[in-house]
Amino acid sequence: MKRFLPDTFTILLVATVAFASVLPIHGEPAAWFSVATNLAVALLFFMHGARLSTDVVLAGFLHWRLQSFILAITFVVFPLLGLLLGFLSPWLIPPALYLGLLYVCVLPSTVQSSIAFTSIAGGNVPAAICAASASNILGMFLTPALVTILFSASGHVGVSLDMIWKILLQLFLPFVLGQVLQPFIGNWIRARKSLLAPVDRGSIIMVVYLAFSNAVIEGIWAEFSTADLALVIGLDIFLLAAALMLTIFGSKLCGFSREDKIAAVFCGSKKSLASGVPMAGVIFAGQSVGAIVLPLMLFHQIQLMVCAWLARRMASHAQEVAQQASFSKDSVTSR
């Protein structure tokens, strides 16, 4: 039962939203906090680049069929699912929340949890590392491009040189700098995950607080009802269930090994909160970012709970199969 409870980070996110609802930051303090948040996000992507071994990334692309399958689920199938949900807006889903759901669909996969769940289930961990890493690197370009294509069609977001410049400056440039310095500081950073974890989570919490402060000032809680939030949770569950089914049956059709199937399931069905929240602040600057990231925050917790259960179930099934195989071998030997 414990695995279905929210993790510490999710509790902190909920507390941040509650705090922003009571004491939103605004005026000059908000301007300075925004500068601090931008610096924290730049540090976050610098650390992503410094942690990631270039050799691992290059080796991963050799397994091109698995990588192509995962990227297709992440950046083609998911956006198509998001477009299908568009038939429910605006008569069932409020437009602002639909944009948040569509934004979930164009995000890259998670890194840490995809790798962790693949490991627990006994999957291809090196392939998962490569797939999740490639997804996030390409996501810095594909996510804004998909937002431009899908959102501009409905008149919400258009591409601009300013948006491209901000993404390059705040996200991609720090990542590249981290990659350049990775041979010198990569081992040091990877050895201090617990020490540097507050940078990961702290930067996301800062972005969430700033986004929801603006949203509260604009009246987000007056705009959406409890029924709206329940609907978003239901649609998040639908998106995750559809992605899991497609990755499970799609990987079987592709003839992947059991280990590769597991990597495909956990990398192809997940969406990154760590990349999605900072990018939302850049892409949707000047808009109600709080309403856009709300479906992502809910999707984050749902995917953690479901995938934790699924990973343990896969691990238990593999153990049972191994025990049966061992028993059968012993029986044959005894004869």
Keywords:
335 residues, mainly alpha, transmembrane, Na+/solute_symporter_sf, Na+/H+ antiporter like fold
What's the short version?
The protein is mainly alpha-helical and 335 residues long.
* Structural shape: globular
Structural class: mainly alpha
CATH class: Mainly Alpha
For this structure, the CATH topology is Na+/H+ antiporter like fold
Using the CA coordinates, give the radius of gyration.
21 Å
Return the CATH architecture: Up-down Bundle
Poorly predicted runs of 5 or more residues: none
Provide the β-strand percentage band.
under 5%
Q: Please state the average pLDDT score.
A: 84
Q: Cα distance, first to last residue? A: 44 Å
Secondary-structure element string? HHHHHHHHHHHHHH
For the secondary structure, the number of strands is: 0
Helix content: over 70%
**Helix run count:** 14
The largest sheet is:
none
Structurally, how many domains make up the residues?
Answer: 1
What does this structure look like?
It is a single chain. The chain is mainly α. It has a single domain (2-334), classed as Na+/H+ antiporter like fold (Up-down Bundle), CATH 1.20.1530. The protein is built from 14 helices and no strands. The chain has helices at 8-22, 27-51, 54-60, 64-85, 95-105, 112-121, 125-152, 161-190, 193-217, 220-223, 226-253, 258-268, 273-283, 289-334. 42% of the residues are buried. The chain crosses the membrane at residues 30-48, 69-91, 97-117, 129-151, 163-181, 202-224, 230-250, 262-285. InterPro entries: Na+/solute_symporter_sf, Put_Na-Bile_cotransptr. This is Bile acid:sodium symporter. Keywords: Membrane, Transmembrane, Transmembrane helix.
